[in-house]
Amino acid sequence: MTHHQKRLLLTVIGIAAIVLLTMGCLWYSMSNERNRVPPADLSDSRYFIAHATGSVEGYNYMNCREALQQSLENGYRYIEVDLDYTADSVLVCIHNWEFFNKASIPGISWNDSSKYNRIPTYDEFRQRKLYGRFTPLSLDDVIAISREQPFTIVVDRVGDASVLNRYFNKETRQRVMVEAFSEEEYRSLKANGYVPMLSLQNIQGLTDCLGFVCRQMFRRDVEWIVVEYHSDLRILYLLKRWLGVKIAAYTVNLPSFLYHHLGNEIDMAYTDNWNLKTLMNNYQDQTTLE
Asked: pTM, whole model, 2 decimals?
């Protein structure tokens, strides 16, 4: 096949995908209510991922021992951690170094970039406390806790299988979900035994996922995608129906959204403070489910 013929074929496939997605959006608008399933059981831990180990005492993005323990006590069985390297190349759980330094160095000025952008060594990291009382975690800490109180570790920010293989053996990788930031990274993680989730971020139109749709129509090898929860719900519904993908959405703290869309357009939700026992948000003004 010549280069011109390949370009023509890709153009035809792209146009066909646009037409199908457009028709699908119209179909969704007309028939969505008829095809919806009953709301998911919002006390079922299978639907929820504790975002950055979950909130504790009203603080988000903590990635700390106390938040992780509280999430486990609340019934969570999927715990997400954000990973980054210390100055001496140890994987630890932080949202980012700016946040960690501002939360763990007393009296730091928000204008002092030399301090809040500095990456500490692992020993320095271990000596810190978030807001003076919360204990930071390394990836090794999280793995040790998961051995004593089994849960699925959901990894963000590090999707390199060769790096993660230093921490997870072949027997444990099937219980580790990893956010991948390219289809090549996704396939590498899958080949190494992890459960990868392809990040497509914010889908607000047909063009945002057109390339993925075209490739998935032929390969059908992506099982999970991760998107922002305010992505176009019509497109998410069609990706599930037509391409057979499962969808995890972040970060969902609205009870009404969970009630109406979990189990329909999305399969799992990252959440900061949803309480599986009370069916309410911790540390926030409560809103009704309807």
From this structure: 0.87
